[in-house]
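Z., the sequence and structure:
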Amino acid sequence: MPGSDSLAGEQEYLTAARADLASMRERVLSLDAVGGDPVSDGYLAATLAARARALVDDPTTPLFFGRTDTADGRWYIGRRHVQDSAGEPTVVDWRADVSLPFYRATRKEPLGVSLRRRYGYDRGTLTAYEDEHLSDHTESEQRSAILAHEIQRPRTGPMRDIVATIQPEQDAVVRADLGMTVCVQGAPGTGKTAVGLHRVAFLLYAHRERLRRSGVLFVGPNRSFLSYIGQVLPALGEYDVAQTTVDDLTSGPPIRHIDSPAVALLKGDARLAEVVRRAVWSHVTHPREPLVVPVGSRRWRVSSDRVAMAIDSLLARDVRYGSGRALLAQRLAHEVLVQMEREGVTTDDRDQDRVARHKDMRAYVDGAWPTVSPATLVLRLLGDPKSLAQHSDGLLTPEEVRLLCWPKPARGPASAPWSLADTVLVDEAADLIDRTPSLGHVVLDEAQDLSPMQLRAVGRRCSTGSATVLGDLAQGTTVWAATRWDVALGHLGKSEAHLEELSRGFRVPSVVIDFAARLLPDLAAGLEPPSSVREDPGNLDLITTDDVATAVVSSCRQALGRPGSVGVIVADAASEAVRLWLSEAGLEPVLLGDDDADRAPLTVVPATLAKGLEYDWVVVVEPAAIVEAEPRGLHRLYVVLTRAVSGLAVVHARPLPAQLR
């Protein structure tokens, strides 16, 4: 069925395509999971179930959103591949090679496309289409009204996919090769998070078997953010991508303490990696006594000099601490077998393993290369000023050693005053002892907010794979926030990464982005100021009042009368008070993090959790309080002001920061 050039004909094609999709699912459901044995049967059944789930049709979602006419045929572009009973494609997956021209073609470079069509929908029903004749060089480039409407469409609930609106510069990142690590410096509203998610979906399409074996991980800044983006990949048919935060990634001992900014900054310093390394390897010593192991009726002896040579050779190989310990037992067992063979005793590998496991061998190795617990090692470092001073000699000053050490020693790991930064040190020690398994690909969002030690922790998870690094230096809000991408990427272990800058904003309207950009010279002077490509300039209201509560309620009432979601962003300490104001006014707000916050029309958002989120209408309460709450408060305010998709109201009794007046 070739499609049509009338709206009715295209609607008929859509109906036929949905019928083809239903037939594909019916065929999958009719198959029997018979693999030859119970394990194979179970694996096949799970595979068929996953395939059937991926073929479920959502009638409220467009099955295809674009079309390209080329010399090779007419291609309908959608979220998934659909084929008819003869196996011919009815809809092609947006990730397929044949779909690339839909996103990249221009009149200057049509890429073989004579016509590009975009479709307008209302809850899955086709309502309009719009054509671009790319072979007609007499026409000038025109903005797509359907594309603009889709970009500016109000949103309620979690983030949705952007497959219908991906722009050429975004598509270049999405389709970058799996072997390439890409760092995206993206201004607010440029879609960097969506680009990262769609890159995952593309890589799973192009390298499914490889990544199924090695794994893919998305690392976000907090759990509220992960909840917000959680439906994007399933909507694209990808259900098996793990999502986590850095804090959960390095989870270990229970958190009992919050570090001061100065201590947190110091614990996140890359110098601590060398301190931990020294502490781990300080356990290895050269025994003064020889090794004596009984085998059969004789006792075999390895001199302390030979033992020292074996230890030194392992240290020179730069092996992990745990691997070196296991190898030492095997090396010394080999020395014993060499002596036995000189005496005419016949041996084999099983004899070497038995000698390596002998209790006298284990006891000797324990003395020279003892077992090390990561948590216990960090506990000793932070709980003992002498130990920390010893292992940080030449790296840390006496004052820094004093800052790092806990006020009093802990009795054990269970009672120690662990902080989040301490768990990253434990993770560092664990990797020195046993190598952290590497995944095939890791996406790291809000990367500018990670400390050097946190970046090292994420980098270990993709040491033999690649990464997509997303962030904005101007939105760095932590005490250790990055100021240069080359330095941050070095800590991540990806110095060779390709840097891509996105400065065209598609979601934040121009009046809002221009207002927030007044802060940029004080935040990241070297960055290109963001620009908005939206035709709708949006709304900006600056409300000075002596009655903040009344003004906030009034602004929220006004916003709730418009389409879309409303977010009230406040300094963390004021979030409960603001929620109470709105509740007493009968507006039924929810606090971000509550179970129903994802779909609530009115959400109170603590400023520290706003990063990565967006609302159609944003009410910011007392910017001065937001700035004062953190050492990098101006950066936090920049984040807060750029969460608005349609309009921003700033309510304040105190003076605005000087840059915004």
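The two ends are 61 Å apart (CA to CA). The mean pLDDT is 92.

Let me know what you think.
H.
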